[in-house]
Amino acid sequence: MVGLSQGYDNIVVRHEQDDANKFSVWYFKSEQLLAVDAVNNTKAYVLGTKLIKSGQCIDKDKLAKPEVECKPANLLRQ
Q1: N or C end of the chain: smaller count of CB under 10 Å?
Q2: Farthest-apart Cα atoms in the chain, separation
């Protein structure tokens, strides 16, 4: 887990297409990303760390779609 989920009011659960054992739970307070639980998913852990530190806003709808690759260019709100 990266970050602290205390005070969250919304979660997004993301399952990866390439591996049924990989998933992540993203915790938000309004639009602010607070924490990420990444299970067997190093990419989500690293990305979550970067996004929490930068404070950038994520498109939650895209995040929830496993067909959208988990990388900043695809997930940042425009």
Answers
A1: C
A2: 32
Q: Is 41 helix (H, G, I), strand (E, B) or coil?
A: coil
**Tens of pLDDT, residues 48-64:** 999 999 999 999 999 99
pLDDT at 78: 76
Closest-CA residue to 27 (of 65, 44, 72): 44
Alpha-helix runs per DSSP H in the chain: 42-54, 60-64, 72-75
Q: Do 38 and 19 form a contact (C-beta atoms < 8 A)?
A: no
- 3-state DSSP percent of the chain in helix, strand and coil, to 5: 30, 30, 40
Domains of the chain: 2-75 (3.30.390.30)
What phi and psi, each to the nearest 5 degrees, are found at residue 30? 60, -115
